[in-house]
Specification:
This protein is α+β, with helices and mostly antiparallel strands and 832 residues long. 30% of the residues lie in helices and 22% in strands. The chain has 20 helices and 34 strands. The protein has a 9-stranded antiparallel sheet. A 7-stranded antiparallel sheet has the order 2-3-4-5-10-15-14. A hairpin with a 6-residue loop joins strand 20 and strand 21. Helix 2 runs antiparallel to helix 3 and helix 18 packs parallel to helix 20. The longest helix is centred in the middle third of the chain and has 22 residues. It is globular, with a radius of gyration of 27 Å. The N terminus is likely disordered. The structure holds alpha-L-fucopyranose. The site of alpha-L-fucopyranose has 11 residues, from loops.
């Protein structure tokens, strides 16, 4: 038997004790769960097999090669270009001309003019946003280790630590990797179970032209500048410092690399700084930031660094646990194998692993004070990644944040709110110069410089609605937390958005409804190559929500009544939703829908999810029409589209179909494959990798277990037949309720709800619920008086005379009202 040295024993004891203290934290609700790890029996062969680690700011993709290890590095503020918006002149007359063509029914001419004014490829005097860029690679070369066994590569998402272990020439080697939020450095510990076994070279490389690699005082240093792009000069300066701290052995400093000789243990610190302070201020010092973080952390012992990291991470991660089914036997297989088998094997713990992986990715890519997660979170190995890895705000950025509230990671939403504050300033220029409107505006993309003008030209880009969708996140954060101070702080952002549409809306010629024109239904077209349009269903739904939010916020905060009243008048004149001749929810103002279209964007179902305008209880025809639309569009699509469909089918209260979509999304996609699915490292494949699909599906799984709109907290609204037993703890519902529940044989068993704000808790369930004395709960009556559960006052839909709408059949629900007190926890169970 191996003996443990005494000091290691005590360190371990401290770790166990501290670990227990951490789990006693009042916010944490740990339960015995399946071990949530991703693991592989080989090193990564490509980037989509590498494993992501991150602290919101610094990201690493770990390849884990035995002879050559590669750690691909990112820092969230390293983007090409420099401060400045992308609006070159006053476009009001052109916009008016396109609008006139549309209202006159000259759609093709309108599209042609839109593309003439805003060409597809970037004009010379402006830019269409800039790319997010890698900061290169850290490479570890181990001479002559080509014979090894027992290789294992692990990402433990319960602790946010990755490990690589192997045996070579009888020596057991271990590498541990994490990025600490607390200490703001990446830490890699290399160890072996025999002394003097660590021999390797540390180097870096970088695709960016403007860079320099050097060594000094036992440090490896890479400095550089971000790239030029379109009419912008790269002005982000970055500095990466790598410091190997040795126990035993010696460090040899070469010109551009460091060599470790015969060491017992090595701690590698990776510290990165940039000059970025905000979207319009680059006065920071990359050097000082990198040095400060390194200086503060390098003297700390490994166990201290690790404990601080794990405790910070678990404070977020442990809030939610999920167990599906009783069988975790498949976890003996490597994760890529499980994914490969998933189509033919029942492996429900892979679903819960995927759910928690989504939460892991959000914790690792979006931290307060930093940038929001972009198209790839923070992980990108290129200088010109697909779609520049920007913020695409006609679905993708929003989807990134769908899990934030419901999966109990509310504070990770903050970077998005900060970006909205920035956009509410930069977006005034596009509101004024393009639309002669007050308030602020952004089209379908933005980047670190918060550009708000047209991007990708007059087909994809003509969508002045990005801010309308993004501001829903402010309102939803309020509904989940009830935080009035937050609402007050962001009220000007909501107001600026409402002002913009108040000025932009125009009467359309047929019904005199007020509509946005020109605009589009994201990325779809209605004739040949014509997308530019007016009064699209999604736009109408978005403006409805923008107006509703500002009216409600003004009431809650008791401010701006006159303004809110003026908005209420406009809101009444928005178009109703329409049901077309195929019984579908109409996408456009006229019945132009193609029932054969499989387009990935199903924008007009925004009203079903994430918004709550389409309800089976209040407007069953619209609900059936949305279902018809979903049937027409089908299941298979790009990764994020399938993630959205999981949410749609959950909202359709159809658990089996939602699960079918999860199955489709969890289809193994190898590098270079051209279909949507999931890569071996569980990254979502659009393809290529886009993180939105991970977040969308994570949110969708939560949505299958609880929903908190349509007047009630709905328990197990969309449970698939094969999820017969399970337990979820710590999900959040609107009105600041925290929900734990479990179920057996597909029926709810016990329920525990913590009320953080008090107020009426209305429950909807298929079971009869009783309290601890066995008494049935009070049946609900009248409207739910809880202010966070108000249903939207939508207009009666217009229905085509040709539409054949099937009647809606719903399960029989029991609806209860429980009057709750702030801070109290309530326990109920189903009567059996
Ligand atoms: C939208 C989508 C594409 C892709 C891109 C980043 O344009 O239509 O599928 O996700 O964003």
């Amino acid at each position: 038997m191996k003996t443990i040295p005494l000091n290691t024993f005590y360190k371990l004891l401290i770790l166990v004790l501290v670990g227990n203290l951490v789990s006693c934290d009042k916010t944490a609700t740990p339960v015995k769960n399946y071990s949530n790890i991703l693991w592989y029996s080989e090193a990564a062969n490509n980037w989509n097999e590498a494993l992501p680690i991150g602290n919101g700011r610094i990201g690493g993709m770990l390849f884990g090669g035995v002879e050559n290890d590669r750690i691909q590095l990112n820092e969230e503020t390293v983007w090409a270009g420099e401060p400045g918006n992308n609006i070159t002149k006053d476009y009001f007359n052109e916009v008016e001309a396109i609008r006139k063509l549309l209202f006159d029914g000259n759609y093709e001419e309108a599209q042609n003019l839109a593309l003439e004014v805003f060409p597809k490829s970037t004009p010379e005097n402006t830019n269409y946003g800039v790319p997010y860029q890698t900061v290169g690679n850290l490479n570890l070369h181990f001479e002559g280790v080509n014979n090894f066994e027992n290789y294992k590569r692990v990402l433990d998402i319960e602790n946010a630590i990755s490990t690589v272990t192997y045996t070579a020439k009888g020596v057991n080697y271990k590498r541990e990797y994490f990025v600490s939020f607390t200490d703001q450095v990446m830490v890699i510990r290399l160890s072996a179970d025999r002394s003097k076994q660590l021999n390797f070279e540390v180097s870096m490389d970088m695709p960016q032209k403007k860079h320099n690699i050097s060594t000094e005082n036992g440090l490896l240093k890479l400095t550089g500048k971000s790239g030029d792009h379109e009419n912008k000069t790269g002005k982000i300066k970055f500095e990466t410092l790598v410091y190997p701290k040795l126990t035993g052995g010696e460090l040899v400093q070469n010109d551009t690399s460091l060599s470790v000789k015969n060491a017992d243990e090595v701690l590698l610190f990776v510290s990165i700084g940039t000059n970025f302070k905000s979207y319009n201020d680059l006065s920071g010092s990359a050097e000082k930031i990198a040095q400060n973080h390194l200086e503060k952390s390098q003297s700390k012992p490994f166990y201290e660094l690790k404990q601080a990291h794990v405790s910070d991470y678990k404070n977020l991660y442990d809030r939610v646990s999920l167990q599906l089914g009783d069988d975790d036997t498949n976890s003996v297989l490597p994760t890529d194998k499980r994914l490969e088998n998933f189509a033919t094997t029942e492996d429900l713990s892979l679903v819960s692993l995927y759910f928690q992986f989504g939460r892991y990715l959000l914790i690792s890519s979006s931290r307060p004070g930093g940038q929001p997660a972009n198209l790839q979170g923070i992980w990108n190995d290129k200088l010109s990644p697909p779609w520049d890895s920007k913020y695409t705000v006609n679905i993708n950025t929003e989807m990134n944040y769908w899990p934030a509230e419901v999966t109990n990671l509310s504070e990770l939403h903050q970077p998005l709110f900060s970006m909205l504050e920035d956009l509410s300033v930069t977006g005034q220029e596009s509101a004024q110069k393009m639309y002669h409107a007050r308030g602020w505006n952004i089209h379908h993309n933005t980047d670190i410089w918060r550009v708000t003008g047209m991007i990708d030209g007059g087909f994809y880009g003509f969508w002045p609605m990005g801010g309308a969708w993004l501001t829903q996140h402010i309102w939803q954060h309020y509904l989940f937390t009830g935080d009035k101070e937050f609402l007050k702080k962001y009220y000007p952002v909501l107001k600026g958005k409402a002002q913009f549409y108040a000025d932009v809306l125009r009467e359309e010629p047929e019904h005199n409804w007020l509509v946005v024109a020109p605009s589009m239904s994201p990325e779809n077209k209605y004739i040949n190559s014509v997308g530019v349009s007016y009064g699209t269903t999604m736009d109408n739904q978005l403006v409805f929500d923008v107006f509703s939010n500002v009216i409600n916020a003004s009431k809650i905060l008791d401010i701006d009544t006159e303004f809110a009243d003026s908005i209420a008048v406009l809101k009444k004149r928005l178009p109703p939703m329409q049901i077309g001749k195929y019984g579908q929810l109409q996408e456009w103002i006229k019945d132009w829908d193609d029932p054969g279209s499989k387009h990935r964007h199903i924008s007009h179902l925004y009203g079903l999810h994430p918004s709550a305008q389409v309800s089976p209880f209040k407007n069953p025809e619209l609900f059936k029409a949305a279902e018809q639309t979903l049937e027409f569009r089908g299941d298979v699509s790009t990764g994020w589209s399938m993630g959205w469909k999981v949410n749609f089918w959950a909202r359709m209260l159809n658990g089996n179909r939602a699960y079918k979509l999860i199955k489709t999304q969890l289809t193994l996609v190898e590098d270079g494959t051209e279909s949507g699915g999931t890569y071996p490292n569980l990254f979502d494949a659009h393809p290529p990798f886009q993180i939105d699909g991970n977040f969308g599906c994570t949110a969708g799984i939560a949505e299958m277990l609880i929903q908190s709109h349509n007047e009630a907290l709905h328990l197990l609204p969309a449970l698939p037949d094969n999820w017969s037993n399970g337990e979820v703890k710590g999900l959040k519902a609107r009105g600041a309720f925290e929900v734990d529940l479990n179920w057996n044989n597909n029926t709810l068993n016990t329920l525990k709800i913590k009320s953080e704000l008090g107020g009426n808790l209305r429950l909807r369930t298929t079971e009869v619920l009783v309290d601890e004395n066995g008494n049935e709960l009070t049946k609900a009556s009248g409207e739910n008086e809880n202010e966070f559960y108000q249903t939207p006052d939508i207009k009666t839909p217009l229905i085509s005379s040709e539409a054949n709408i099937k009647p809606l059949q719903l399960p029989e629900y029991h609806i209860y009202d429980v009057s709750t007190e702030k801070g109290k926890t309530y326990e109920f169970h189903a009567q059996n």
